[in-house]
Design a protein that fits this description.
This protein is mainly α. About 85% of the residues lie in helices and about 0% in strands. Helix 2 (about 10-20) crosses helix 4, helix 3 (about 25-45) packs parallel to helix 5 and helix 5 packs antiparallel against helix 7. The protein is globular. It starts with a helix and ends with a helix.
Length: about 140
């Protein structure tokens, strides 16, 4: 319903026009969108981001010629990274409740290798979109 509302209100077209006026295209545009999702994921729940922002950015991604399945997987990876990244890192605070004796700083320090691995995975998925789309192409 939100997607329909965004379309009827003209907000989606306005956001598309705003993005086109920046001059960003291709991979640079995807990186800018991922940066927005990363920042939002540090302060918002992933479901809220999906419901609010994916309907705004999906038409932009399609207009650039990217596959929506690829964009969806990239979005999920970025959201995973955002949920464990400081300053908010909502999953870290869930872990803190489960392990009250472990300081939050120690939990964040322990996440550094995982964040680095996730960033490398994200870079590989952005650089080589065929990795993301390969499994789906093997079915039927």
């Amino acid at each position: 319903m939100l997607s329909k509302l965004l379309t009827l209100s003209g907000l989606a077209a306005g956001v598309l026009g705003l993005v086109q006026s920046t001059g960003l295209e291709g991979t640079m545009l995807i990186l800018a969108i991922m940066l927005v999702f990363l920042v939002l994921g540090c302060v918002m729940d992933s479901m809220a981001i999906i419901l609010i922002f994916v309907p705004l950015f999906a038409p932009i991604v399609v207009a650039q010629g990217f596959a929506l399945i690829w964009f969806g997987i990239i979005f999920i990876v970025v959201t995973e990274i955002a949920l464990i990244t400081p300053s908010v890192g909502m999953n870290v605070f869930v872990l803190k409740v489960v392990l009250p004796e472990v300081p939050v700083v120690r939990i964040f320090k322990g996440l550094v290798p995982f964040i680095a691995a996730d960033v490398l995975r994200l870079a590989a998925l952005i650089a080589f979109p065929a990795i993301t789309l390969w499994l789906g192409s093997t079915i039927g």
